[in-house]
From TrEMBL:
One of its GO terms (biological process) is pyrroloquinoline quinone biosynthetic process. Ring cyclization and eight-electron oxidation of 3a-(2-amino-2-carboxyethyl)-4,5-dioxo-4,5,6,7,8,9-hexahydroquinoline-7,9-dicarboxylic-acid to PQQ. This is Pyrroloquinoline-quinone synthase. Residues 10-220 form the Thiaminase-2/PQQC domain. The gene is pqqCD_1. Keywords: Oxidoreductase, Plasmid, PQQ biosynthesis. It comes from Sulfitobacter pontiacus. InterPro entries: Haem_Oase-like_multi-hlx, PqqC, PqqC-like, Thiaminase-2/PQQC. GO terms for molecular function: pyrroloquinoline-quinone synthase activity. It catalyses: 6-(2-amino-2-carboxyethyl)-7,8-dioxo-1,2,3,4,7,8-hexahydroquinoline-2,4-dicarboxylate + 3 O2 = pyrroloquinoline quinone + 2 H2O2 + 2 H2O + H(+). Pathway: Cofactor biosynthesis; pyrroloquinoline quinone biosynthesis. Belongs to the PqqC family. It holds the Pfam family TENA_THI-4. Gene3D superfamilies: Heme oxygenase-like. It comes from the Bacteria.
Amino acid sequence: MTATPAEFEARLRRIGAERYHDKHPFHDLLHGGGCTPDQVRAWVINRFYYQASIPMKDAAFMSRVDDPALRRAWRSRIEDHDGTDEVEGGIARWLHLADAVGLDRDYVASARGVLPATRFAVDAYVRFVRDKTLLEAVAASLTELFAPKIHAARIEGLMANYAFADDTSLSYFRNRLTQAPKDVAFGLGWVLEHADTAEKQDAAAAALEFKTDVLWAQLDALHAAYVTPARIPPGAWVPGSYVLTPAS
């Protein structure tokens, strides 16, 4: 039976309540000040790969959209991350964080030290958006429903516990506090309108679950590689390398 829009929205929100990566133990460690400088650096390196892939994912989505209105609505997401000639984007802001924690920003941007599982998870998300239906692609972006809460907790926790945290280093998260609600208001409305059968609602819910798995897998990889007992796979960043200045 097809759910009403309100019932379906409640279903999507339950997915976030149960599966969003704010519940991962790595976030408790990070936000509570329990990460070592090198564990923070590992997070910055690996999360950059995800951030840098988001506009590529959005460009792949837009290349499949026939409706100019939908392309116009989606275009700001690419600009939010890539920036414009006048406004710095999220990728550049993330590199400010890399500077703050003492990493070589060119190394971070190269993605050479990214964990294999991070690369596989993020690349799978880009392929998902490229290959699945437009409804599933938009639904997968709805983890943004839950992002402002984790960004606010991250700002509070990092500011309270780490000397590197200031307005410049955390500018990515501060900007997402306003960007994510704007994006998700459009995306949620579009999904609720177009998921007009039970089958489409199931597909959209499964897409959102897939995206929560993508985010969770990245933290699983970080925790396994850099939190005791550390097991860093070949080719991934090794603590002490590509560090320019101390961070605490």
